[in-house]
């Protein structure tokens, strides 16, 4: 088993470049299945989740070609040969379920096992299935699989999402691009990753309007052609480096970070006493390590992102005063609390709220990454802690951070990855 060993206390200084967004590239890779001619995606991060979704669509007949020298991936979905995604691939990652929309649109049927991923909450797929039914698909649930079929094709409809689910919004958009007639999605998710997916689909010939608002209109077209696309920067990776620098008394410029995608995080960092400078090329954080208590509450975009909750909680553990963190998106996203407590954090849980009394410092110890963002939070904590921190279960971190060790070393962190 591999682990990270971090010797805390080093001030972070320098520049770090953010990779393309994991949460944008995964649905866009699924969307390449809709094209009858090849597509090319540029600047793709080397992440386990990227490799998994590529394996999933390759199992369905898409020809996937990696160019590791240029970080490009070419996709040729002209010959889809299967409608069932293998269980052993889908169970690794929840985003694998995003192939159902494109399969329904192209093949008229899809059979997908119930998805896996981080254990941060139930994240039911009922919103996806209700929407597919509204588009004319018949849904059957048998033996851990979802089978959807629309032998007469999908037909546009008005769909209201009970919750602005990012995954459901993406899946419905992809299914509706080739549906007959017009589809309207109400209470749609507004995340930048939705906008990027639609930008790619429209470049393929789709007719979609309203991305980035809560009402999206899709006029179905007969077919889509491949396109070349560069995925947006990863706002969660950027936010993680901002937090790390703030906790480690850093002066760090995060290149390729889009401040308009990080407004709640930037606002809370400023509230915590951190100097934040924004420009068109990135965001600079300057911190003297004297942090103030803040309260955060996760919400769908444009609110404070749930994917930044764990990292920001790590920051509050060494802030002066009492902070609170309220999680409204996922019901089981406080698994990092126990690990932070091992490092000396004073945290108590009250239902879906964590109360954090800041301490003078954290102390390094052995901890476990319980999910992707929890792992990132522990890295931030380890960088600021006294002594040595060992983090295992790194497969979670590998799902979402490209070259984390190399990038942090470039900022002066004492961090190594070792195999026990």
UniProtKB/TrEMBL annotation:
Supply the EC number(s). Answer: 2.5.1.7
Any idea which positions bind UDP-N-acetyl-alpha-D-glucosamine? 94, 123-127, 307, 329
- Chief localization: cytoplasm
Q: Which reaction does it catalyse?
A: phosphoenolpyruvate + UDP-N-acetyl-alpha-D-glucosamine = UDP-N-acetyl-3-O-(1-carboxyvinyl)-alpha-D-glucosamine + phosphate
Q: Name one GO molecular function term.
A: UDP-N-acetylglucosamine 1-carboxyvinyltransferase activity
Query: What residues bear 2-(S-cysteinyl)pyruvic acid O-phosphothioketal in this entry?
Result: 118
Q: Which Pfam families match?
A: EPSP_synthase (PF00275)
User: Which biological process annotations from GO are given for this protein?
Assistant: cell division; cell wall organization; peptidoglycan biosynthetic process; regulation of cell shape; UDP-N-acetylgalactosamine biosynthetic process
This protein's pathway reads: Cell wall biogenesis; peptidoglycan biosynthesis
Q: Which residues form the Enolpyruvate transferase domain?
A: 7-408
Cellular location(s)? Cytoplasm
**HAMAP family with a match to the protein in the record:** MurA (MF_00111)
Function recorded in the entry: Cell wall formation. Adds enolpyruvyl to UDP-N-acetylglucosamine.
Q: Which family does it belong to?
A: Belongs to the EPSP synthase family. MurA subfamily.
Its protein name is UDP-N-acetylglucosamine 1-carboxyvinyltransferase
